[in-house]
Amino acid sequence: MNGQKKIILCPNPSRDREMKSTKEAISVLQEIGFQTVVCSPFRDQKTELFADIDVRPLTQELRSASMLITFGGDGTILHLAKLAALHKIPVLGINMGSLGFIAELEASELDTLRKLQDWDFKTENRMMLDVTVMRDGKQIYQNLGLNDAVIREGPISHVIHLSIASDGHHLADISGDGVIIATPTGSTAYSLSAGGPVMEPVAEAMVLCPICTHNMRFSSYVLSPNHTLSIELVRNGRKPVYLFVDESRAFSLKQDDQILVRQSKYVTKLVRLSEKSFCEIFAKKMLPGGLEDEK
């Protein structure tokens, strides 16, 4: 039965040197009856970085795949989350980075992949964000993010002014380095560094977290996912302001642009093979002494 299921392996060559983990995973998966194919997670990646493995086009292989396995850090998962969500394919992350909150397994746990043999596993639906930019009444940008949408100043540090509304009702004015709108998954990323709350990743909510705000009375909001947030640039003139979705390429904003952020109908499906809870993972990797205990 597994011979009819194809699993795509997407290794980050800068993490999986000489494709050692990828080759080990291929061996395990083929042994239990799966078809496997290797695709580059990034466009224009040099094929020689993948050792002697035949690398196939990702967009073509996604049409007939049953699962996507990534090898790298959480950034590799974020990079592929949009494609996986649009194709409704579950993602299993193998952590070869440092923290790895989204990844399910460590590189030392590849034998756990044998649990896929009966195709009986749990998945977690992770909320995603639809991010749109309107300019002169026209949509000029649209993206889908698993972690966050970030609006911040350019390479030259300066204060930017933002006005934020929720469903047409004024919510907050922010003056500072910018703002982060994060999903629960993204609450342990940039938002946490900026002082935002930690949320259980399977929850459905939006975190509105200012970056280095000048208003010390304003910290952050946790909002219902039913809201549509609207962010407008105020009194910024020609100062460079940029939008980033899941660490994507910067999109340059103009003075009268309107940025709309809402819960997406798409979700990222993360495969769960271990019994680790989010609280356990967070305590081990983020709380004092956690990484020391892991050694």
Summarize the structure.
The chain has 295 residues and is α/β, with parallel strands linked by helices.
Structure description:
The chain is of the alpha/beta class and 295 residues long. It folds into 2 domains: 2-121 and 273-294, Rossmann fold; 128-266, Sandwich (Tumour Suppressor Smad4). 16% of the residues lie in helices and 38% in strands. It has helices at 20-31, 58-61, 74-86, 190-193, 278-286, 290-294, and strands at residues 6-11, 35-39, 55-56, 67-72, 91-95, 105-106, 122-135, 138-145, 148-153, 160-166, 169-176, 178-182, 206-211, 221-223, 228-233, 241-245, 251-253, 258-272. The chain has a 6-stranded parallel sheet with strand order 3-2-1-4-5-6, with helices on both faces. The protein has a 6-stranded antiparallel sheet with strand order 8-7-18-15-10-11. The protein has a 6-stranded antiparallel sheet with strand order 14-13-12-9-16-17, with no helix packed on it. The two termini are 40 Å apart.
